Amino acid sequence: MKKETGVAISMGIIFGLVFSFVVILNTQKNQTVTQKQQTQKKVVTGAGTGVAIEPLIVSAPTDGVVLDTNKVSLKGTTEKGSFLVVQTQTKDLTATAENGAFTIDVPLSLGENVIHISSYPKGTGGKVQEKELKVYYLTAN
Amino acid sequence: MNKKQSLLISVVAVCLCVVPAVIAISPTLEPTKSASISATPEEKGAQHLLDTLKSQAEALQKKDQRAYVGIVSKIKDSIVTINATEGVDEKTYSIKIDDTLTHLYRIAGTKTNEIKKGDLKEGDYIIVTGQMLDNTVEANDVYIDEQFLVKTGRISEISKTDYYLKVITYDKDEYTLDIQNSTRQFMLNVKTKEIESIGFSKMKEGDSVHFVVSKTNPGTSKEKNRYDAIRVLVIPQEFSVQ
């Protein structure tokens, strides 16, 4: 076998191994995040009921994000059938998360927007779950 | 063996390492919109890597666009000090105002009015965008805004004569809300789940209340945690126990 053939094979194997390592590492990272989210689901219990309920998780937008549009899509998950109240300084919005997931378009005011999300799960004796985000809609016009 | 054959061998070697790895992780890879139906496993893996790098770059860009928010505590020359509350932590930021590069605005409803550095005063609630360098934010834009509190709690006391509510939030903080003529009052209709406009007499102790107050303009002669309510939304107790 010639020298350049050996070099070519070695380089091919090294590149292949590096690429495989990066892909596998990235996949494992994604799996860890998913497992963490699944573990969190069993933490919250309804007041006095002892029944495990899904926690209120807001996946978007990110707290403290700066935007240049006057509305934002609020996404997340909660206990199935929960009644949601989304409140900002200018608007009250309500929705029912029939299957647990929710997407709500929230209008934004110029400047700081405090988005307060409350989830009223069914049959938990009034146990309310809350999250608060601050989103900044900034434009010079 | 010529150069062409060497190249062919190296390509085969790459495939031998990459293909098993991609096949091993392929069931866990989520399909992406950009991946075509006829994409090979190698292409899918490469696309996934590209998407990851793209989202990380976008996240870094957004991170750079963060806002620094707080109440002005000191103004000295071109440096403005703000006190910020981040969760339970109190932080202090130094903001550098450049006479030519920094733009200052006052937010008034749906408009921003450009102002001068001299218009900024202690006690103002400001939002600053810019880059943090050596513990100082090099301000691009500074906005003077109104600070609002948006909270939820349970009504613990109602004064029908003095028109106020005492509310205990789920974080155990107590607020007194003065209901003024300007206060917008709403209640959830338990049957229709629609929000309806109501009068003060409909509220009762034990109901949940979602309220908005202005921390910047709490009203005249207010003690701590007492505000004129801007808006209240009442969720009747009957709904909560359903």
Architecture overview:
Chain A contains 1 helix and 8 strands; from the N terminus they run αββββββββ. With 141 residues, chain A is of the alpha+beta class. Chain A folds into 2 domains: 1-40; 57-137, Immunoglobulins (Immunoglobulin-like, Sandwich). In chain A, the strands form 2 sheets. Chain A has a 5-stranded mixed beta sheet with strand order 2-8-7-4-5, with no helix packed on it. Chain A has a 3-stranded antiparallel beta sheet with strand order 1-3-6, with no helix packed on it. In chain A, strand 4 and strand 5 form a beta hairpin. The radius of gyration of chain A is 23 Å and the shape is elongated. The model of chain A has no long low-confidence stretch (mean pLDDT 83). Chain B is α+β, with helices and mostly antiparallel strands. Chain B folds into 3 domains: 11-64, no CATH class; 67-145, OB fold (Dihydrolipoamide Acetyltransferase, E2P), CATH 2.40.50; 148-240, OB fold (Dihydrolipoamide Acetyltransferase, E2P) (Beta Barrel), CATH 2.40.50.320. Chain B is 21% helix and 43% strand. Chain B is built from 3 helices and 14 strands. A 5-stranded mixed β-barrel of chain B has the order 1-2-3-7-6. In chain B, strands 8-9-10-14-13 form a 5-stranded mixed barrel. In chain B, strand 9 and strand 10 (174-178) form a beta hairpin. In chain B, helix 1 (3-25) packs across helix 2 (41-64). Chains A and B meet through helix 1, strand 4, strand 5, strand 7 and strand 8 of A and helix 1, helix 2, strand 4, strand 5 and strand 7 of B.
